[in-house]
């Protein structure tokens, strides 16, 4: 489990999904999905998005980059995907949080 979470934390800016992580760990996607959900009580995808959102939130607070750049820097495919992750994790969109900060 530590290897999986560490891998996600080290590679969150890259294309990352169940297949990539399973291949990295030499296990099947199905096993990884079940094991991760059982141990962490959330899906691999949710974990990846949470890690990305946490890093994006930090960047939001400490940089002048626009939302598109922040989304790209942190592995999101779009602002929409980043906003979805922010809403799930923080209860507000990245754009709303950015307005509150600045």
Secondary-structure blueprint:
Blueprint lengths: L1 H10 L6 H8 L3 H12 L3 H19 L4 H7 L5 H12 L3 H8 L1
Descriptive account of the structure:
- By secondary structure, the protein is mainly alpha-helical.
- Helix content is 75%, strand content 0%.
- It is built from seven helices and no strands.
- Helix 2 (18-25) crosses helix 3 (29-40).
- Order of secondary-structure elements: HHHHHHH
SS field, number of helical segments: 7
Radius of gyration: 14 Å
Categorize the overall geometry.
Answer: elongated
Amino- and carboxy-terminal Cα gap: 37 Å
Helix residue percentage: over 70%
Helix/strand/pairing class, anyone? Answer: mainly alpha
What's the total number of strands?
0
Average predicted confidence as pLDDT:
95
* pLDDT < 50 stretches: none
Q: Which band does the percent of strand residues land in?
A: under 5%
Largest sheet geometry = none
Give a brief rundown of this model.
The protein has helices spanning 2-11, 18-25, 29-40, 44-62, 67-73, 79-90, 94-101. The protein is mainly alpha-helical and 102 residues long.
């Amino acid at each position: 489990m530590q290897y999986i979470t560490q891998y996600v934390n080290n590679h969150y800016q890259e294309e990352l999904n169940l297949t990539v992580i399973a291949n990295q760990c030499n296990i099947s996607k199905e096993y990884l999905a079940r094991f991760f959900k059982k141990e962490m009580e959330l899906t691999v995808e949710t974990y990846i998005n949470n890690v990305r959102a946490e890093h994006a939130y930090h960047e939001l607070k400490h940089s002048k980059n626009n939302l598109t750049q922040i989304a790209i820097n942190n592995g999101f495919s779009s602002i929409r995907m980043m906003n979805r992750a922010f809403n799930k994790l923080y209860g507000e969109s990245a754009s709303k949080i950015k307005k509150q900060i600045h």
